[in-house]
Design brief:
The complex is a heterotrimer. In chain A, about 85% of the residues lie in helices and about 0% in strands. Chain A is an all-alpha fold. The radius of gyration of chain A is 17 Å and the shape is elongated. Chain A starts with a helix and ends in a 6-residue tail after the last helix. Chain B has 6 helices and 3 strands. In chain B, helix 5 packs across helix 6. The mean pLDDT of chain C is about 80. Chain C has 5 helices and no strands. The radius of gyration of chain C is 20 Å and the shape is elongated. By secondary structure, chain C is mostly helical. The chains are: A mainly alpha, B mainly alpha, C mainly alpha. Chains in contact: A-C, B-C. The interface between A and C is large, with 57 and 62 residues. Chain A: This is K+/H+ antiporter subunit F. Chain A: Keywords: Cell membrane, Membrane, Transmembrane, Transmembrane helix, Transport.
Chain lengths: ~100, ~170, ~120
């Protein structure tokens, strides 16, 4: 372990941030699983998407390449259109729980 | 619309949108190479012509100083409400008894102004835009910490709505 | 495990602080998603992550990549603008859908009319 202090600080902070975001994702999954209603599950899914985007951004910082930004942007886009479609579906009142 | 720059207007109907799209393209490509500028201009041009078909209601933004002031206010409020909502969540989130719906009468009528207000209110944690009735000019919103209804009405009307009306109307 | 780009000490500290703060705020928001006891209260929770949470991580990554490549890298601005515009849209749509469903079912906890609170106040 001859890594300089700066690299260690940033590395461990990134690990800490990833653990925190991982816990946040677990909270969102918990809400998706227990509901109780369809709108709660969709809200959990939306939060999960944003948190996954953040996780990708921290991985991107760690790797030092901009490769992960495209992935984060794609996740954000898909999450947005998915949630909007699901909310529209709820509005029609044709979801069977 | 028929100003001296009429020809430019006909080729590029929405110059601001054109520039924004071109900037987005160049940001995504991470390059300022001439090829990317040409390609980005073509894409932006196509998108602006599609916008002509949609025929959006024309608007004129006034008072850049008011815009800057509004942006600063929103930034401050985002920090403040993040702190407030975070405190509510961490300190006994199960007792969110104060949450509730409330209605505000709005004087703002401009569609774009209302859209910006909707984004501001929903983006600051603690307030959520639910439904706007354009005929009556009433706004139904949900507030997480609804202790004093009047203070929330004042926040919306004095802090945001007045500036938005200066900018859009 | 803890490999990371080599930044100068000041930048490493700044990026570390911003990223950890953003992640912590996101976690608080998601905890709210679990702890708040009513759907409409829960809708407020994810906005913490979508504003300061995303903001902290994005500013951190902007600093990191600007220092690494010694030129300003504004890729993150795109994500920030995108998140700022899309999050309110999804939350508004979701709240309206939920309100519509609750009204159809005659749930007494939601106002049946948009004007209920005004009528209560004005008498």
């Amino acid at each position: 372990m001859t890594e300089p202090l700066e690299v260690l600080i940033l590395g461990w902070s990134l690990t800490l941030a990833q653990v925190l975001v991982g816990l946040a994702m677990a909270c969102a999954v918990y809400r998706i699983l227990i509901g109780p209603r369809a709108q709660d599950r969709i809200l959990g899914l939306d939060t999960l998407y944003v948190n996954a985007m953040l996780l990708l951004l921290t991985i991107g910082i760690r790797s030092g390449t901009t490769l992960y930004f495209e992935a984060a942007l794609a996740i954000g886009l898909l999450g947005f259109s998915g949630t909007v479609a699901l909310a529209k579906f709820l509005m029609r009142g044709e979801v069977i729980e | 619309m028929n100003r001296p720059s009429g020809l430019l207007r006909r080729i590029i109907p929405f110059p601001l949108l054109f520039l924004a799209l071109l900037a987005m393209w160049l940001l995504l490509q991470q390059s300022l190479a001439p090829g990317h500028i040409v390609l980005g201009s073509l894409v932006a041009l196509g998108a602006t012509w599609v916008m002509v078909a949609l025929d959006p209601e024309p608007t004129r933004l006034r008072r850049p100083a008011a815009m800057a002031q509004l942006a600063l206010r929103v930034l401050v409020d985002v920090f403040r409400s993040n702190l407030a909502v975070g405190t509510i969540i961490l300190r006994g989130g199960r007792r969110s008894d104060h949450a509730g719906f409330m209605t505000v009468r709005l004087d703002l009528r401009n569609e774009y102004g209302l859209a910006v207000l909707a984004i501001i209110l929903t983006c600051t944690p603690g307030t959520l835009w639910v439904n706007h009735d354009p005929a009556r000019g009433t706004l139904l919103l949900h507030v997480l910490d609804l202790v004093d209804e009047q203070s929330w009405t004042d926040l919306i009307k004095l802090r945001y709505e007045r500036l938005l009306m200066e900018i859009f109307e | 495990m803890s490999t990371a780009p080599h930044l100068p000490l000041w930048a490493a500290l700044l990026v570390a602080a911003l990223v950890v703060a953003g992640a912590a705020i996101t976690l608080v928001g998601s905890i709210g998603l679990v702890r708040l006891n009513n759907f409409y209260a829960r809708v407020h929770a994810p906005t913490l992550g979508a504003t300061l949470g995303v903001g902290g991580v994005l500013v951190g990554s902007m600093i990191c990549f600007s220092v690494l490549q010694s030129r300003p890298l504004l890729h993150e601005v795109l994500i920030a603008v995108f998140v700022t515009i899309t999050t309110p849209v999804t939350l508004m749509l979701l709240a309206r859908a939920a309100l519509h469903r609750d009204r159809v079912e005659g749930n007494p906890e939601v106002p049946q009319s948009d004007l209920a609170s005004l009528e209560r106040r004005d008498g």
